[in-house]
Amino acid sequence: MARSPAVSRPFSRRQVLKGGAALGLGSAAALGLSPAWANPWGRSARSTTYSYESEEGPNVSLSIRRESLPVAGQEARPITINGTSPGPLIRLKEGQDAVLRVTNLLEESTSIHWHGMILPPGMDGVPGISFAGIAPGETFTYRFPVQQNGTYWYHSHSGLQEQLGHAGPLIIDAAEPEPFRYDREHVLLLTDWTFENPASVFRNLKTMEGFYNFQERTVADFFADVRDKGFSQTAEMRSMWSKMRMSSRDIADVTGSTYSYLLNGHSPEENWNALFKTGERVRLRVINGSAMSYFDVRIPGLKMTVVAADGQPVQPVPVDEFRIGVAETYDVLVSPEDDQAYTIFAESMDRSGYARATLAPREGMQAEIPKRRQIADRGMEGMAAGAMGGMKGMDHSGMSRDDMEGMDHSNMSGGDMEGMDHGSGDGMAKEKAKMRENGMLVAGEAQSGSRYGEAGIGIDPDERRVLVYRDLKAFTPWPDRRGPGRELELHLTGNMERYMWSFDGKKFSEVNGPIHFEKDERLRLILINDTMMEHPIHLHGMWMELENGQGELIPRKHTLNVKPGERVSALITADAEGSWAFHCHLLYHMEAGMFRVVQVS
Amino acid sequence: MKIKLYLVGVSAAFIFASLAKADDGYDAPDGWPSPIVEHNQGTAQFDRLEYSIPENGKDAMVWDFQGWYGSDVNRMYVKSEGENIQGDGEDAEFESLELLYSRLIADFWELQGGVGYQGGVFSDDHEERTYGVVGLQGVMPYEIETDVALQVSDEGDVSASFEGEYDFRLTQRLYVQPRTEIAVAANEAKEFGVGEGLNSVRAGLRIGYEVTRRFAPYVGAYWEKEYGETADLTRANGDRTEGTGVVAGARLIF
């Protein structure tokens, strides 16, 4: 069997009994050099020992190398961790004191950042902020108390290494029973692999706009639109985009034209299998470990119940599909009743490709692969962001009556009010009730300009039930019940033509000093997206409680997806003294300057 | 030449300044790297590298090249246009060879300035002159790629040029590219066949196929016409002032 050294441990008797028939089919060879945790039987929740390979805490040793391994059936040179790429599943337990020894066998400096973990600043793994990085040949020992549980991941925070497969899942078992039950679990790690050198990808983005976009509008699209919408509307729309010198098809900077979308390290053709026994309730821990790709995940034929977001439990939401931004994680439960195969389908947001696996009762099965949708054209919301740059990104044109609730009009000038549909006066009174005396919105209320009721570009909400941010509701209020003492507003900005990305119009190289949080203050972070792209914004070291209108039960996240033209807010308790990274988690946006340091003191 | 050296010096200083700029001033110990390191980028391309067959006159090999290196804001450009007329026994000629410092002044616009040379590539087969140039390069609303420039020669002759092109997508790889060049001059420069006023207008249409983003062979046609004193000078030489031609070539990006 062609398996990597890390998988060489013989199977336990339990494993052989469980997976015996399947493995006997010889299809295990198809597993190739997959990460060890990508075992098709996953992990049975009832077993006392792990039924499959993982690096179990509290003491874990990891070696980082660059080596030749096949990816998507082709020769490649990814960065491996303990011999696999993506890296091994690391399993810790809440309450442990984790000791993770990371040895760098690369020829360059490296690092591991534990994404979503609350830990001491020196253990956060960001070179230049948390520590100096891990020099070639050196071993760095991360030590931190594990104070949380759920689905997380880890990845390099050095240069563009993450694009080379330097990432893996980090699962933390709960000390107390979780608010949901399940019989078996599978980790589904989504990544985007390219055979190009990541530095070349970055250069292509920097020097040629739309380099990877092979779904641009053409003459044929124009005539199709004329047929559907009439000439004048089509001409007007096209002329507006053209005038702005932007592409309405700019959904993803890097696309399936260079990416192979992988699920647990496997291409769609390799079809990784996740097995279940009929009648079991299966927990899927879905992690978007991509460098640049948002995915829309669904399993045709199965309802998925979302039970956790970014590792934190949420009240169950039954959905048919969910969008997962880069670096986000969602845990969903599925209950396959029939003795049949189901396709796990993760379509990239720009529809240029997909990752796929099969959830089946036996190995080697497959189900129909859904047809990919057409790429969408960005509409008014992106337009508003582009055209109104400095106008606080307020676009109310597409808002429904629902969105009007909890709107903050206190800071608006007369000009902003024009063209707004205020609905009934009743609504205004209701909004007033949500203002605090200091003019700030009551904690937990949604900002005006937020679109928490929308999943985003390319999703037809009438087609199926798709998860939206507004659905996310915590079980109990988070410990800090204080309202925000102040508001901090940051604009997400960029110049697509030059591939410059920034906060408040300044790249990391141009800012003077960090963003300061007063130690132990409670503040509201308002993010306003002035660009026409989605940005997954990640704060290290502290949770962001997303003010999605759920009042006391707002969810907390480590990564917030901010849609074009959108204005979102989160409450933060600045209890983590030290310096922390704060950035867009699109790898090349971060590299281009969309990065800040947050200093808590 | 002095101007040239000065410009090189100034632009080099800009590039190094942009490299050495201080990072976010959080308190990191000495010796720690910056979490985000910006690198200079560069690219070079033949927007047109083509064989041109005019309906009258001799065939020519024509190039339109530009390359840059630098940061997001400060860059150095090398630009050149020229031709080698086939079978005239003369060496290739730089219509322009320019070294420019370029600075991003708006989202879509770069202000550029530097020095240029017109004349033979390897020999003195052609009249030579050097000039200073100031220009604006960028994308106009409606996505028209634009390059306007004002030249002042070592003889004090003042001229200006405008180039515009637009890529119109037929399919993801097949494109039609209309382009135009307009040249005007404030005073006459007989030895270069330049008269006062509007000199010439050239309009072309190319159909290309992007085999890759970096290699797109194309075919096309152009029409050109000279005006006013420039046309008079040409007529005096016994040449035609209006003509059409066909081209075949490739767009190459490195």
From TrEMBL, chain A:
InterPro entries linked to this entry: Cu-oxidase-like_N, Cu-oxidase_2nd, Cu-oxidase_C, Cu-oxidase_fam, Cu-R_CopA, Cu_oxidase_Cu_BS, Cupredoxin, CuRO_1_CopA
UniProt-listed PROSITE patterns: MULTICOPPER_OXIDASE2, TAT
Classification via CDD domains: CuRO_1_CopA, CuRO_2_CopA, CuRO_3_CopA
Claim: Oxidoreductase is one of the keywords in the record: yes
Keywords: Copper, Metal-binding, Oxidoreductase
Oxidoreductase recorded as keyword: yes
Domain of life assignment: Bacteria
Domain Plastocyanin-like: 71-175, 246-358, 484-600
PANTHER family, alphabetized: FI03373P-RELATED, MULTI-COPPER OXIDASE
Name of the featured protein: Copper resistance system multicopper oxidase
Organism in which the protein naturally occurs: Chromohalobacter sarecensis
Species classification: Bacteria, Pseudomonadati, Pseudomonadota, Gammaproteobacteria, Oceanospirillales
TrEMBL record, chain B:
Cited Gene3D superfamilies: Autotransporter beta-domain
Cited InterPro entries: Autotransporte_beta_dom_sf (IPR036709), Cu-R_B_prcur (IPR007939)
Keyword Isomerase: no
Coiled coil: none
Keyword Signal belongs to the record: yes
Pfam families: CopB
Origin: domain of life: Bacteria
Keywords, ordered alphabetically: Signal
Signal peptide range in chain numbering: 1-22
Protein name: Copper resistance protein B
